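Notes continue from the previous slide.

Worked example: a multi-chain complex. Inputs as given:
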Amino acid sequence: MSNIYPSQHPLVAHKLTRLRYKNTQPQKFRELTREISALLTYEATADLLTSPRQVETPLVETEGVELKERIALVPILRAGLGMVEGVWELMPSAEVWHIGLYRDEETLQPVEYYNKLPASPTVSVCLILDPMLATGGSAVATVDIVKRWGVSRIKFVAMIASPEGIAAMQEAHPDVPIHLAAIDEKLNEVGYILPGLGDAGDRQFGTL
Ligand code: PRP
Ligand code: URA
């Protein structure tokens, strides 16, 4: 599968196991979500462009670099919200533009309820954040929105994907790399990822 990057890092695998565990409480769940998001972002941003920048150390002047591109984080509400803090720890000046979508429980189709993107894009790179890539409906719809906004350099960062969700994204947006903690086995009959972690929004916000 091209453009799909499941992390091979043991810290990610260790933390994801704790995240999956059914008795992990919301406070710990949020902490793990933050930490895994930072680790995945470290991997996802390895190709960001830099420009040269001189820096004075206490001893001499030397050549350094600074990030060249303006970056936005695009969390998909609600569950993507919990990923923002972890990514911000690495890129505190990233803009955050929220997209509100929920999955209709009957049809499993995404329903848009919040989008305040300005008319013209303010960034050149968007990291879309959502812990779960299940049927792929929410991910595909959000990439559609961001592309229509005018940003073409997009990365999707998630905790867990199903093979069905990956196939949907590869069909609709093969140009968008997907960075993941794990690819799971399948969807169940009501569209939940197996083995998965349950409902990522409810587990973060204590609304089970
Ligand atoms: C969850 C999850 C994704 C979506 C994935 O959100 O956070 O956004 O489902 O499913 P899909 O790939 O089949 O579209 P949900 O609709 O439960 O909303 P919430 O984050 O507000 O709980
Ligand atoms: N949304 C979730 O939060 N979990 C799933 O397994 C699928 C969609």
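Summary box: The CA atoms of residues 38 and 139 lie 20 Å apart. The mean pLDDT is 97.
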